[in-house]
Automatic annotation (TrEMBL), chain A:
Involved in beta-(1-->2)glucan export. Transmembrane domains (TMD) form a pore in the inner membrane and the ATP-binding domain (NBD) is responsible for energy generation. This is ABC transporter ATP-binding protein. Keywords: ATP-binding, Cell membrane, Membrane, Nucleotide-binding, Transport. PANTHER family: DIPEPTIDE TRANSPORT ATP-BINDING PROTEIN DPPD, OLIGOPEPTIDE TRANSPORT ATP-BINDING PROTEIN APPD. Belongs to the ABC transporter superfamily. It comes from the Bacteria. GO terms for molecular function: ATP binding. Residues 12-260 form the ABC transporter domain. Pfam families: ABC_tran (PF00005), oligo_HPY (PF08352). It is found in: Cell inner membrane. It is a peripheral membrane protein.
UniProtKB/TrEMBL annotation, chain B:
It comes from Bradyrhizobium diversitatis. This is Dipeptide ABC transporter ATP-binding protein. It is found in: Cell inner membrane. Its main location: membrane. Pfam families: ABC_tran (PF00005), oligo_HPY (PF08352). The keyword Nucleotide-binding applies. SMART domains: AAA. Residues 6-256 form the ABC transporter domain. InterPro entries: AAA+_ATPase, ABC_transp_ATP-bind, ABC_transporter-like_ATP-bd, ABC_transporter-like_CS, Oligopep_ABC_C, P-loop_NTPase. The keyword ATP-binding applies. Keywords: ATP-binding, Nucleotide-binding, Transport.
Amino acid sequence: MADTSDLVLDVRNLKTVFFTNSGLFKAVDDLSFNVRRGETLAIVGESGCGKSVTALSLMRLVPDPPGRIVGGSVTLEGTELLSLDEAQMRAVRGNRISMIFQEPMTSLNPVMRIGDQIVEAVRLHRSITAKEAHDIAIEMLRLVRIPEPARRAREYPHQLSGGMRQRAMIAMALACRPALLIADEPTTALDVTIQAQILALILDLQKELGTGLVLITHDLGVVAQTAQRVIVMYAGRKVEEASVEALFASPMHPYTRGLMASIPAVPASGVPAQARLNEIPGTVPSLVGLPRGCAFAPRCKLAIKRCEAEYPPLADWGGGHLAACWRAEDVAEVA
Amino acid sequence: MTEALLEVTDLKKHYPVRAGVLRRQVGTVHAVDGVSFALGTGETLGLVGESGCGKSTVARSVLRLVEPTSGQIRLDGEDITHLSKTALRPHRRSMQIVFQDPFASLNPRMTAGDIVGEPIAVHGLASGKALEARVAQLFEQVGLRPDQMRNFPHQFSGGQRQRICIARALALGPRLIVCDEPVSALDVSIQAQVINLLIDLQRQHGFSYLFIAHDLAVVAHISHRVAVMYLGRIVEIADKDELFRNPRHPYTQALLASVPVANPLAKKLAPLIDGDVPSPVNPPSGCAFHTRCRFAMERCKTERPALLDAGDGHQVACLLNEGTGRGR
Ligand SMILES: Nc1ncnc2c1ncn2[C@@H]1O[C@H](COP(=O)(O)OP(=O)(O)OP(=O)(O)O)[C@@H](O)[C@H]1O
Ligand SMILES: Nc1ncnc2c1ncn2[C@@H]1O[C@H](COP(=O)(O)OP(=O)(O)OP(=O)(O)O)[C@@H](O)[C@H]1O
Ligand code: SF4
Ligand SMILES: [Mg+2]
Ligand SMILES: [Mg+2]
């Protein structure tokens, strides 16, 4: 058993379901993972695979109805979050566990000055004077490299550019020095030069503050450049987990492998103009009425009879490289 | 270039910025500010640059969906910049556009078959059984089943909807297809299917693409040549391989360095430029990039660099090294 003393987050068998008109479905199914102090864990997968619902489940923010966490455990710094009442959870949220979003206006109040919003967030969790909180706010804005922080603190969100708003949201999320930061597609809406700035900033701050980071993205480039460990989700389940090096060097799940082969690379040196990309045939399945067996089977080149009948267990193929595939051992042989 | 299908010369599109009750003009958005390029038959020209740099405005001006402020657009040698609606009509058949959001651009109350067949019917090229057969053929070309013609847009996935849009664009046998972020809304695994389809269709029909995307890897993949825009201007244009291997404009270099590489062993993200893109309302003087450029000289603030030949068919608009940009 690995040393668990620096474990910040431990998620076991998390299950979150939605009750909708078209039926009940498991948006997150039997998901387990953990995050250490200062570690970055990336969660990747295509639209609708359950990344955001995972994040909302950790924050206990799943809209109920139609959603509900129906099983598992989420332990943050030794505290079981799923059994806290709402008042206790409010003391943890934004304090020990924080979240940033793709769209900063989801967490910024449009009619309140940036500085005041940080002050409010800090005073919610700490008994300090307004002056002390104000100093923290300015310090946070400086930390996220907003120029002229004292002046910016007096501005409203709409007066800032997209990149600046993202920085302000990060400042607010980190103001209480949380043990865990969840970033849900934090740079997806940003231009690539601004994305590079924001990612570099998040990683610097994380190092400085020792925060555990769960980074949700669909961009494998972002994963490769930021994470130490990666989990790949497909249709609500974790289908693979590995260190970032192992995942890119030898993906073991056919889905992960297909995903990696289907992204064009830049620069395309040596690649002839307009080579065809590898395709994963078919489409992402609907979560309602998923097949009994492996959810990827209908799109998988390696699928055998068994794949349709039985869900493959998540097995450890060595060195903590987990994959849920009946044919994981054969994946490398098939291009 | 021997046989340019499309030639754009010094294209400008300015929008007035109005304010107050009297709607007085208080400024000008320089959405496109002097863009020139040529696109050959069977060629794909990629257009990249950050949000708001004017890519869509170039695309729409080329198709005359917006009226350019000045400049010239030639299709097959004929100046179409000022053609009237009627005079433009025969040319409309040769130029088609595919947009980013495949849902927004499809009429939800029409069947997929009617959507694809509409332009053919409108131009009176076929009707009845012949029309149906032509639509079925188009469906097959884009990888849809003809029996799906009776379905409505909401019954298709995102990637399939984009196929419908492509089939519709193909319907009139165009020579130029403008693709404005055609795969940006799609999942990675579906994106590859659509890119492959576009490449295959080009090989079969030999048409030209003006291909816009903010994802540099996608553009690098599909294009023969690539133009980089910054604040309404092209700052660099070159063959794909040349541009990605030897970028010469400091902005292109920064842009390429900002792309996260899908290889954990490759060098880590190193942002080469700080700050945001300045506003296209009253953009910076001289070289519009000088406010963020690490190599800016005093003259960059006042002198506007022209797009000059830097050898190997590579053009760059930068004052460094006698107007040939920065080598690396
Ligand atoms: N409030 C809700 N009501 C009903 N279904 C929901 C709700 N929120 C999420 N879902 C469903 O749960 C599934 C998982 O959604 P989730 O938002 O976690 O996907 P995701 O992986 O974050 O995708 P994306 O990359 O598009 O953000 C999807 O099928 C989604 O439609
Ligand atoms: N109808 C309009 N009126 C005023 N300004 C406009 C209009 N259309 C575009 N603009 C402005 O012109 C500039 C260029 O816009 P354009 O849509 O061409 O950019 P883009 O490069 O396509 O950006 P994106 O990557 O976000 O699609 C932007 O600043 C935009 O706000
Ligand atoms: S012209 Fe000057 S400011 Fe513009 S990119 Fe070249 S060096 Fe930088
Ligand atoms: Mg999401
Ligand atoms: Mg655009």
